[in-house]
Amino acid sequence: MIHLDLKRLMSYLGALAVAASVTFLPVAPAQAQTRTLPDFTDLVEQVGPSVVNIRTLEKASARSATGGSGGMDEEMLEFFRRFGVPIPNMPNGPRQAPRPNRPQAPSDEEAQPRGVGSGFILTADGFVMTNAHVVEGADEVLVTLTDKREYKAKIIGFDKRSDVAVVKIEATGLPAIKVGDVSRLKVGEWVMAIGSPFGLENTVTAGIVSAKQRDTGDYLPFIQTDVAINPGNSGGPLINMRGEVVGINSQIYSRSGGFMGISFAIPMDEAVRVSDQLRATGRVSRGRIGVQIDQVTKDVAESIGLGKPQGALVRGVESGSPAEKAGVEAGDIITKFDGKAIEKSTDLPRLVGNVKPGTKSTLTVFRRGGAKELSVVIAEIEPDKVVAKKTPDREEKPKASAAAQVLGLTVSELTDAQKKELKIKGGVKVDAATEGAARAGVREGDVIVAIANVEVASVKEFDAAVAKIDKTKNVNMLFRRGEWAQYALIRPAR
Fold first, then answer.
1. Active site (annotated) includes residue 11
2. Does the pLDDT of residue 388 top 50, yes or no?
3. What phi and psi, each to the nearest 5 degrees, are found at residue 427?
4. CATH topology for 400-490?
5. Which CATH architecture group holds 38-91+107-284?
6. Chain center to CA of 425
């Protein structure tokens, strides 16, 4: 018995040993713990010499008689200018004491300090990239290298839409930056910034990529980071762990004017595209097709059979524009441009803007339940034009029809003059909107061009379409208000 018990005990202990070995052998957490925090010293040595300090000057005649700034230095002036804070006028207020190793303010006849920013060397022969807002309006631009050499720079060009500028200094053999591949950049990846916040040159800060494709403008899907960026960092490089520049630090989100953990950088692929045009011609040429667009909401997408909310809703088409010539209509939803999907409405101007004017492109539009391809020739963006106010229509109002009271609408025929003015073939005019129509935002004077995905050219066609709608569900209606088109979802009266 004892012998058998010992054998069982030894067998039991052996099983425990096997179980223990199986349980504790995989030590994945230990492997994860071997990761260390990044060391940026090599990156600073590698990229640091390519980063420059940029100071801008303006002539005294451009400043107010009292100095305009109340004695503030250039770093604080740039702070107020960049982040939209009004510049205080303090002619009798305390003046800031001169900083050590800084020259006293020049006389009124000389150029006066205007602002301070950062930049980086784009090519070895002296092209420097920075932000447009850093150099815009400057009479002189001074570029200081890390070895303290200072050059007067010539502004080659700047583009306010993308906030990219290129200046040129007369020097050769300069340490140019290496451009990185923005498509390889990942959220959570470590990045570093070098710049001159508040004039403190060669300041290094680091953080991670917080988000990509962050929309804050028509033409730029910004890189969002938590890298500390402050006034004076503008125009400096955002650098990945391979020592490549992936963005230009441009903006911050702030309620106080100081850094709050959210910074935005211009993607380098967009910046290079702009800089190439600036270096070639001194200006940026962008494409346009002449449409006013809006987002597609979930409710609208479901009601018209689009499925998910995607694409750009065409609210208006400019007269004589490439879009009008291509057959684009108000109410269309542009879902693709040259085969590229339009996920958000802001994708469209970005894609079109990157196309060279004169290029023939393809639009895929969703119109009344089906997809259609249109060919369009891209035009060039022109300065905004002031649209003349149209004279009101004084013609006698046609007799109204109350056949669509189920939607809270009273409609009437359009006159030939109204059709010509709106550049449409047909539709019905809203003479009164109550109940469901009023709650949906429809009002007197609007022109209905389609209901429940059915185009209507007259009151008769409108009444026929209304008679066929499912009165237990919301009905989608496309209408025009002046030159703008939009959808409304109306709940029928029961």
1. no
2. no
3. 145, 175
4. Pdz3 Domain (2.30.42)
5. Beta Barrel (2.40)
6. 36
